[in-house]
Amino acid sequence: MQIHNFDIDLFLREYWQKKPLLIRNPWTAWSNPLEPDELAGLACEEDVESRLIERTGDNWTLDHGPFAPERFGALGGQPWTLLVQAVDHHAPDVAALIHPFRFVPNWRIDDVMVSYASDRGGVGPHFDQYDVFLLQGLGKRRWRVGGLCDEASILLPHDELRLLATFEAKDEWVLEPGDILYVPPGYAHDGVAVGDGCMTYSIGFRAPSQSELIEGWCDHLVDTIQRDDRYADPDLQAQDNPGEISADALARLRGMMTQKLLDPQGFARWFGEFNSSRKYADADWRPEEPVQPDELRARLASGVALLRNPASRFSFIRGTGDAVLLFADGQSFDCSGEAAAFARQICAQDHVLASPALADSPPCLTLIAALIDQGSIAVEED
Could you tell me which residue ranges the JmjC domain spans (predicted)? Predict the structure, then answer.
């Protein structure tokens, strides 16, 4: 799947995190990848995050799934919207919608949320802290986009919905199947279904906050540093006033902290593992039995395809020479030679055709077996 007549360099230069952009149906032939009944079925499953938003007048109600199948048949004539998170984890055709947007690095991609709305259904005027491409799948939706918001923007009193108390639209469009609206972080926007059967795919991105980085990195350091690594001053000299904390002591104390806090290699490994952790930590995609080395070697030699789990997160950091540090689902792997080449390839492609070189390389076999055993990749079935 590819977006045609879309200038990526122009988009990144003029629009990315700067201003909204409407892209009228850029597909050769748009085809909706998921049926509404399939979306409703996902919302009934225990391990899928879903929400149902209903509006009666000025009142908004929010319920969390999983939902009983009969719940959808009991919905009345009031506007409602079903939201299902991370549908790309469960539907390969939905996961394929991310491919055209992979000019944004893997580590910034979050998931694909899918919404289905009845006539006049929506989630209300709001703003997000992340970039999003809103792709119309079925039906029509009227999008209104306002100005920039921040944490000081006044919200309606609701425990779970972050709805803007005031909203003034600056632009307005009706999106039809295949149309895309890009909305940068912080821009107020409001989407309302025009008629029944409105289905929208939200390709969302991640941006770690400063507080998240500081908290996560410091928590990691506290868990890993030696408890008996204490302040020492073997060159201590008598002071004129014992109440003074000297400049030398402060410099030594500050050095104890910054030595770890400013460790670039340590931070790089931590961030790769932190950022590649799965969206849902409790999800277990591991095979029932660990892969057998001899069987894996034979399968690779036969030229099978290795498939990346749509729910997995892959990225890497370049090292010296051809070495890379691969991250997959919160784990890190030091790779060089043919293993590094495979690591770069599996990060760039969702499936990789095996070659005899992989089967003949012990480091590759070890890496691939580890990725299979943790559920990050799988061997394609015959």
Answer: 93-222
8-205 to CATH, choices 1.10.10.60, 3.40.718.10, 3.40.1670.10, 2.60.120.650: 2.60.120.650
Report the run of H or E that residue 168 belongs to, with start and end: none
300-359 pLDDT tens trace: 999 999 999 999 999 999 999 999 999 999 999 999 999 999 999 999 999 999 988 899
Scanning 117-246, the segments in alpha helix (DSSP H) are 210-224
d(CA 117, CA 123): 9
Which helix (DSSP H) or strand (DSSP E) does residue 73 occupy?
Answer: helix 70-73
pTM equals 0.92
Paired residues of 308 in beta bridges: 377
**Helices 362-373/337-348 angle, 10° precision:** 40
pLDDT digit string, tens, across residues 10-56: 999 999 999 999 999 999 889 999 999 999 999 999 999 999 999 98
The b-or-e profile of 37-68 (16+ CB within 10 A means b, else e) is ebbbebbbeeebbbbbbbbeeeebeeeebebe
